[in-house]
Each structure stands twice: as C-alpha cells, then as structure tokens.
Amino acid sequence: MKFLVTGGTGFIGARVVVNLWERKIPVVVADLSLNIEWTKQIALLKYLNAPVKLSEIREQIDNTEFVHLDVADKEAVNQLFLKYHDITHVIHLAYLMSAEVEANHHRGASVNILGMANMFDMVVDHQLARLVFASSETIYGANHSAYGDENYAVKEEDFCSLDDHFFTYGVMKMLNEYTAQKYIKTKGVSIACMRPPIVYGDGRMRGSVLWACEFATNPALNKPVKLPFSKNARDCWIYVDDVAEQFVRLALKPELNHFSYNNGGHSVTAGELMQTVKNILPDARYEFDENIPRTPLVDRCDSTRLEQEIGFIPRSLEDGIRAQIEEARSRQLQVSY
C-alpha cells in the first residue's frame, strides 16, 4: 500500500500526510507550491515531548518523496504514476479556493475541472484501489433557507439549484461529483468524496476564510481578531485533524456503501464560537461586522452517513479549539527558538 496526497502540503493535505506518517503508511506528497518544512513542523511539534514517537515520525519523513506537481498537466500527472508505480490510493486535495477561482477563472477551471479529470483517469489507467477527493458544503448553495427549517441538517441527497449558488467553486465541486459518478458507473472504479464545512485550525495561509484560523490563533498569540460577519451568523465548523482522520479512514476502508459523505461538524453562531474561545482564553479580544448578517454557506450538515461508514466522531468544538491554541503557541515558541 502506498498513498499519493495531492495538495499534500496545504492546510488539510499536510494533516493528511502527518496522519499517514503516524500510521506508518508510505506516502508520496505532491503540491504545486511545496511547503515541506511546514508539513514536517506539524508532525514534529505534535511529538516534541515524546522521543520514541518523534523518532518514528522522523523515519517516516525521511522515507517520503515530495514532488512538485501541477495536476492540470496530464502528462506530468501520468509520469508521476509511472515513476511511483506502486501507488495504490489517492487523496486528492489539490484545488484552487473560491477567491483564487474568481480572480482567474481560466486557471481555476484548469486545476479544478481538468485537474480532477486527470486524477480520475489515473484511477482507471493505473488500477488504483481508491481515490477520495474533497468536495464541499458549498454544493448545497449559499443559504440554508433553501431547505426550509433552520434546524434542518442538510443530508447528502439534498440538492440545490444553480439559482441558489454563490460560489463558482461550489458549482465546480458539483461538476466534479457528477463526473466522478460517471467514471464509477462506466469504468467500475472506486471513487468517493467528502463535503467539508468550515475547516478550522492553525496554519491556514491562503483562501477567503483565513478567519477560520485567526478566530483562535490570534487570541492564542494575544492578538485581536475581527470576524467579517455578524455574531448571529451560523456556520458548521470542524477541526482540521478530524477531517484528515476522516479522509484516511474513508480511503482505507475496503468497501464503501456510498459515494458522497458530509463531514459533519458543530453548528454554532459566531457569538457562540467566540464565547468558546473566551472560555479558554478569558482575555481574548474580538469583534464582529454587524453589517454582514451571515456567510454564504449552509448552517448545518448531517454526518450520520460518514459516522456509520468509518466509525469516527469528530472531537468537541472546545477540544478542537484547545488543540488549535496549543499548536499556535507551540509553533510560536519553536520559531522563537
């Protein structure tokens, strides 16, 4: 068994790689903008005070190949699979985020549509055991009111029309899912996707939701934070390490019962989110923008299907925020050293 993780030094991808290192599963890490040292740092900080585990992680790191890859370049993608012909599983996370897509639609389509199709072709051409890719809660549209009851948790079979969408990114994810199911039906391959909500944690460096890092990391470092929406805005939040665990478990399970899965998470208002931070860090300084009543995302996602499939329930919101705060502080100390 050997994994390829594309976007493997990105915000979620790096956590997936560390998860595989912890499992001692060989992995090839591919990214267009390789951030190798940051990926290593995540693993090393985690086990700084555990010498035996730290030694094991270092061994995994030393045996890992880091590869520069543009997934939109089919020949480069194919050459990677020819070179690492023992790859059996792929977790595909190489994708341009919403702001990047809106800034350059041509490049966005190249990476997000053509790049995804290239990876689907690799599943067929190289007879891979499984490919799991990141879809998004944005496929459900920009407003929870499309589903009626505000307390309703959106399920995988729910659908929203294009008229209710806000992000080009989300519509691209819809096309990815549609195309994947074509490959499954016509080629008999194993492909699955997950639809994460807002993924929070320390170390997010790009995209339009940097506040999903800053809301807890800034207070951890004694800095103020401003969330660009009302305290009453409700969203669904999940910790980045839990998402990584979900990706790896879904990739490893021999047989799957479904194609698409909601990651789940905790549905809270921005006010409730920051109160959780303040319960941990009483001196946290934060403010909201009451001119923006809500984010263009659904508010609740049902995760029953995924929990039953892989037997994993994400940690509590408070535990996730504590983990983020501890990592942010450890990283600052490590940099200081």
From TrEMBL:
It comes from the Bacteria. Signal peptide: none annotated. Residues 4-255 form the NAD-dependent epimerase/dehydratase domain. Belongs to the NAD(P)-dependent epimerase/dehydratase family. PANTHER family: DTDP-D-GLUCOSE 4,6-DEHYDRATASE-RELATED. This is NAD(P)-dependent oxidoreductase. It comes from Polluticaenibacter yanchengensis. The lineage of its organism: Bacteria, Pseudomonadati, Bacteroidota, Chitinophagia, Chitinophagales.
